[in-house]
């Protein structure tokens, strides 16, 4: 597992292995795989949770972070993404966490260049968000102990959400039934292939997991933003206490955040008994530790072999 770029890249067995590893870290497992390794977090889009979660994961693994700010980097002078990453590899970075506005930015890097640094996709455009998807899977698995047969409802800005794309794909592959809610215009053919579009009230009554997404105003057109009514959206698609009361007793409320209170979720629902929003964030550190360990494992084995060779005393 040299890189982790998309959920489609990972086999079901690898997904379960990462969940198992993350659960072991949560239970107190220690790892020295990152000792004397350097990480760089190249975030070309704003981030709070993902970036800080990776930073904490790196520190817990004993890694050192090379500081990087896109606004003050040489990319502002025209340097390509490849040259930036190759530079960081050359000065000693072992793993690069990259978030970029371009969909599938990683394809050119891994297909057309010889890179030794490991790449973990921290989110690409409206494409994939594997670390968020994996921490969501971990949180669901902790609660239900399975995916097969579960009903998962994803409500919100589907077409612009890399979380929706990642989660719908892998949950379907793992045996869950995925359904969708929100504006009809966001329910594109790719989602229609995976599950039906349903009324939010029906979703709340039938789903084991209700997964909310924010409206990504930064990706909407000027006209779409002008016509958007937060109140109307909340009344039609938002999760309020009345809808929470419709849910099954053991149902979960999830959200990748950032949260727009009063838009897709009521303020008094964010931390209600059924909400796993902040436990998701806590699990994110352990899952990201598991992901980093997985891509570095080959290097670690190589280092051990090299050390063993050094210890051989020739006659």
TrEMBL record:
GO function term, MF aspect, one: aspartate carbamoyltransferase activity
Binding residue positions for L-aspartate: 77, 162, 214
The protein's annotated pathway: Pyrimidine metabolism; UMP biosynthesis via de novo pathway; (S)-dihydroorotate from bicarbonate: step 2/3
Aspartate/ornithine carbamoyltransferase Asp/Orn-binding domain ranges (all copies): 148-293
Residue intervals of the Aspartate/ornithine carbamoyltransferase carbamoyl-P binding domain: 2-142
Stored NCBIfam families: asp_carb_tr, PRK00856.1
Similarity section: Belongs to the aspartate/ornithine carbamoyltransferase superfamily. ATCase family.
Protein name: Aspartate carbamoyltransferase
Organism: Companilactobacillus huachuanensis
